[in-house]
Amino acid sequence: MIGMSTVLEENKSYCSSLTEYKRFKTKVVHIGNIAMGGDEPIRVQSMTTTDTMDTEASVQQSIRMIDAGCELVRITAPSKRDAQNLENIKSGLLEKGYETPLVADIHFTPNAAEIAARIVEKVRVNPGNYADKKKFQELEYTDETYKAELDRIRERFTPLVKICKEEGTAMRIGTNHGSLSDRIMSRYGDTPLGMVESAMEFLRICRDNDYHEIVLSMKASNPQVMVQAYRLLVNHMMAEGMNYPLHLGVTEAGEGEDGRIKSAVGIGSLLEDGLGDTVRVSLTEEPEEEIPVARMLVDRYEKRKGHDPVQEISHNPLDPFSYERRKSHHVHNFGDHEVPRVVGDLSSREEIKPSSLFGYGYNYSVPLDKWNIADQAADFIYVGDKNVNFQIPGTLGLIVDADHWSDELGDRRFPLIEFNDFIQQGELSEKLNFIDVKAEELDTPDSISALKKAKNSVLVLHTANDHAVASLRRVFIELINQDCSIPVIIARNYGTETSEQVQLFASTDVGALLLDGLGDGIWLRAQNSDPQTLKRLSFGILQATRTRISKTEYISCPSCGRTLFDLQETTAKIRSRTDHLKGVKIGIMGCIVNGPGEMADADYGYVGTGPGKITLYKEKEVVRRNVPSADAVDALIDLIREHGDWVEPVAASE
Fold first, then answer.
1. How far is Cα 242 from Cα 357, in angstroms, rounded to an integer?
2. What residues contact 81, with CB distance under 8 A and at least 6 apart?
3. Which of 60, 275, 537, 574 is the most exposed place for a label (fewest CB within 10 A)?
4. What is the pLDDT of residue 589?
5. C-alpha to C-alpha distance for 178 and 187, rounded to whole angstroms
């Protein structure tokens, strides 16, 4: 198996700039009546969930998507009959005055792709299962047998390339982390490098045929894998003089808040560095619900140019293609091996009472005279200059303005010191101090050198720069370069943004840094979001970045015409029975296309394999086949119980 280090050179480039917002300049690809790439707007798109053979339902759902702002409509074509029926769907839309380009989604059937390429404006092929094999077998390939497989793929794929070139049809070569072929897995493993090489094999065939109307994607349900794969793809394209447009998406992101957070962490992290020419947010909801989320993510960058300058980075020690947490020394319960901490804020309250803590995961029971502490409970709460005259929960620490702090306040109250005051007077507490600093204040070697003297402090790092990720990342890089190991809380303050915007923007701003191993805590403030929402969002970001697990994780596909059961209803049913299983990952897949592969990261899998039939997995292994859907959720619970991961839910206290 080829390791990442044996392939990558010293060149870590993957975007136009680490400090200035610039879109990576890609070639322009024409898809029907729209253009993508170059200086064109970042396009938003989605995918129908109807049966492709149901023409009227597909037309009506497409119209709802288009009316919501969808610029490309993708439709699954699992068979030749489905591909042929795309003609009727296209005609139905044209009759109603809709000329939005259609994309045929192809997986296992090259013949269907060749039919669709003569009808629609774009076809999507998945290299992992288009004329390739995926049986989850450990196979050894010699150079000769590997080349023989590539020759077979070239022979099978070339006819589609020629049709697309002849018809002026665009193509997306879309790699999915969950459907890498056995051949790719045998040589590169289940890695971002394997994803990139899988696409590059198909891309080389296109280039050999002088066909270039190509868009590329590197999707995964794990945002960290997804981000690393896209970066690595761009790095390889740069090395070979390529610049094809990028389709961004976190596949199987899930539903509701979790799906939005996970999508924003992955997609937003790439958009921040100017990568991405089209976006699809994959939610287990109606497809038209995906469009406003995608639009909100994309629109943020329309005004990003012209932001305040961010100081250039002379040396970047980060490896953008693999994860390594920044080394920070241990202070109280921050840094080193500790999980990132969550900070809440009650400083604007006129009075802080026991009930004020409810939103942050602490509920006081009067009859029992004790605190009930949730799995998602803030670790610290900032109270500013307010007095707290009651006994706080044993796991909670309070952050107090330095002017109102003294040792007499108790051992779980800690001072917040302005950076300039810290320079003048040093640390106040012998246990834990919080040093409040703007990224722009740390623009000289001397300013960071001063922080090396802080042995019992944590940095609270924030910025007013619109290009916040770059501004904050630069500070982390300088801390590493100057061997300053002080733990750092990432602090973000949002003003007039709506609660929905805060959800997506914070997931981007904080998530992008956490994915690079940067940050020992989160502190979110927002005018239009209540404490409970911000606390839940903070833990959601940590969960999505896999830096602190505090709840069950659901890897749930967004549904499409291949889906064999009602995904929204089923996901809700499974969630209602299992959402207390902290740290357990459950994959819920509508069909077999990406199911087992995307569930490689899950502990248990629930996959539709026929009408009314479910197959259950333990990791990649099939455990029970053809379980009637009416019994399948109970069977899943039994499976979790058999493997020792089940705990009985605890009834809420009176």
1. 54
2. 53
3. 60
4. 78
5. 16
Comparing CA positions, the residue from 264, 267, 222, 262 lying closest to residue 246 is: 267
Q: How far is CA 453 from the centre of its chain?
A: 36
The token duo for 321 is 């293609």
Please give the backbone phi and psi of residue 599, each rounded to the nearest 5 degrees, phi first. -80, 0
* Element at 614 (helix H, strand E): strand 613-618
Number of other residues whose CB lies within 10 A of the CB of residue 70: 26
Q: Which residues of 375-405 are buried (b: 16+ CB within 10 A; e: fewer)?
A: ebbbbbbbbbebebeeebbeebbbbbbbeeb
Residue type for position 423: I
Q: Which two tokens stand for residue 162?
A: 């020629």
- Which residues, including other chains, have CB under 8 Å from residue 1's CB and lie 6 or more apart? 186, 187, 188, 189
Distance from the Cα of residue 78 to its chain's centroid: 27
Quickly state the pLDDT bin for 323 (edges 50, 70, 90): very high
Residue whose C-alpha is closest to residue 226's, from 199, 247, 250:
250
Q: How far is CA 279 from the centre of its chain?
A: 12
CB contact at 8 A, 586 and 559: no
**47: β partners:** 74
What are 88's two structure tokens? 């009727």
**H/E run at residue 577:** helix 567-578
State the burial class of residue 373 (Cβ atoms within 10 Å of its Cβ: 0-12, 13-18, 19+): middle
CA dihedral 566, 571, 573, 578 (to 10 degrees): 160
Best CA proximity match to 461, nearest among 484, 487, 480, 483: 487
195's tokens: 């994803």
Helix (H) or strand (E) holding 230: helix 223-239
Structure tokens at 247: 């389709």
pLDDT for res 3: 44
Range scoring the smallest mean pLDDT among 128-137, 218-227, 638-647: 128-137
**Side-by-side strand order, sheet with 247-248:** 214-219, 170-176, 122-125, 102-106, 72-76, 43-47, 278-279, 247-248
Q: Would you state the torsion angle of the CA atoms of residues 181, 183, 185, 186, taken in this order, to the nearest 10 degrees?
A: 160
**What is the per-residue pLDDT across 589-611, written as a single tens digit (0 to 9) for each?**
776 555 555 556 788 888 887 77
Cα–Cα dist 263/647, whole Å: 29
- Please give the Cα distance from 38 to 233 (Å, whole number): 17
CA dist 75 → 43, 59, 86, 319, 604 (Å) = 17, 10, 8, 37, 28
